[in-house]
């Protein structure tokens, strides 16, 4: 999709009239050094939704998540989470407030056991009963992690490490779970299991913001989607409509 063919549809950017916004991004601008990567990005994630961000390499998807997580400072705009402005807040403080990211590339602790990795996710909690319950939830979602609880994280397969990264995030007790390329470099069978777990978490009420290179899989999983191109939102709609939109089909779904 070239700059000459960019398109915008804002009619459905806020799903479900009356829905409660959990995350609101308002015209954010950000970049690295002298390079501006995000140009006035705006989006909303409502309570209980799965919202996907799709787009080509370099579109600004991961950078958007880094800004939300407090890792990259804004040059302009605002970010609101749970009705409070959070841009400028330290990343660790955001985790304690329920804003949790599963990073691209998993980034587990390879020399720690599976159980130790999971418990690192609960570092900001002191509710022992809740931690124990969430650990069992993780093991129910990904039974392989329970079987390998004493195994070093670095010895797991790529798909198992992705499960571990998601499990670690669940242990933080998120209100909003952000996932950056969860299917990257993972066998298809394990990708299916991971997406099934994501759907199950959402059905339990967890709100999810999903960045995913596999646009078709992301749109099938999510309620709404935003299409990013060169640091701008060029299309936003319900996922079921994006899946059949000729412009999305041609540019991102290979049809």
Structural description of this entry:
With 255 residues, this protein is α/β, with parallel strands linked by helices. It has a single domain (3-251), classed as P-loop containing nucleotide triphosphate hydrolases (Rossmann fold, 3-Layer(aba) Sandwich). The chain is built from ten helices and ten strands. The strands form two sheets. The protein has a six-stranded mixed β-sheet, sandwiched between helices. The protein has a four-stranded antiparallel β-sheet with strand order 2-1-4-5, with helices on one face. Strand 4 (76-81) and strand 5 form a beta hairpin. The chain is globular. The protein starts with 20 loop residues before the first strand and ends with a helix.
- Enumerate the strands of the largest sheet in spatial order, edge to edge or round the barrel: 6-7-8-3-9-10
The CATH superfamily title: P-loop containing nucleotide triphosphate hydrolases
By DSSP (H or I, 4+ residues per run), the number of helices equals 10
What distance lies between the first and last C-alpha atoms, to the nearest angstrom? Answer: 13 Å
Q: Which CATH architecture is right?
A: 3-Layer(aba) Sandwich
Largest sheet: number of strands, sense, barrel closure: 6 strands, mixed
